[in-house]
Every structure is written in structure tokens, then in C-alpha cells.
Amino acid sequence: MKLRPKIPTIKIKRTLMFKLHWRVGLIAAFFIIWLSITGVLLNHSRSLGFHEYYSENSFILSAYNMNVPEGYIENIEKKDGQVLVTTQDETLTLSEGDNVEQEVARSYRGEGVNIEKIILDLHTGKIFGLSGTVISDLAALALLFLTFSGLYNLWRRKKG
Asked: What is the rounded CA–CA span in Å between residue 89 and residue 66?
């Protein structure tokens, strides 16, 4: 039977901490890049004019629950070359050539979602709902772990 030489437990702990730090850092790199890009865009959103632009993208609008609900249009009536559309909130008077669905959608959701708000919600993870917020919180905890484990690794190297 061959005996293995004993490895000091401090060396094992240091190696384990370094490997854990490295792996968490690799995963956190995506979030660091994500937060950096959205953070810079937020810092300069006014000068870039993001507050003036709105998205009408259907994916974005559905993320903000801004799609016209089923049954929102109550009645459509043609009268004297015009189309009267009665919704749950108002009556719209449209020309016969207008796209009724498009005009009702525009009336329901206004201009759409402000680009500045989209960037902010991407930064915080809110655009993805509760799961996005939880992932964002986990990324913040990972960054804290990286900071403290990095300081620990540095301290251990200097100590000996």
C-alpha cells in the first residue's frame, strides 16, 4: 500500500477558493458587461436622445403588457365615409382607409415604451419580470463574492 504525502489543508482551501473565484468570475463576466453597457447608456441617455424615442416592437410591448386585450373593441360601424370604433375606453372616428387594428392599438398604448425606460429595465432586470430581478440580485451577490474572495486571495498571497 502506497501512502500519499499529506497536502496542507491551507493549500487546499486556497486552491479551492481560487477555483471558485475563477468560475464565479467567468459567469459574472456576462453580467459585468451587461451592466456596464446599460449603465453607460443610462448615463448618457439624455444626450443620446433616448428620452425622445419610443418602441412599438411587439416583443417589447408584450413585455410591458401593452398589447390590446382580447375583446377591447366593442363595436365597429361604418357611417358617412367614416369608421366609428367603440372600445371599452372611448369611441374613435377613423377614415375608411385607416387600419382599424393599428389605430386602436396606437390609441390603447399611446406612443409605446420609452427607450430610456427599456434600457433602465434591462439594467435592473425588470424587463424579464421577477426572474430577471432575481437574476440581477444574484449577479450583484456574485460581484460581492468576487470582490471579497479576490481580496482574500490577495491577502493570503501576501501573508505567505
From this structure: 15
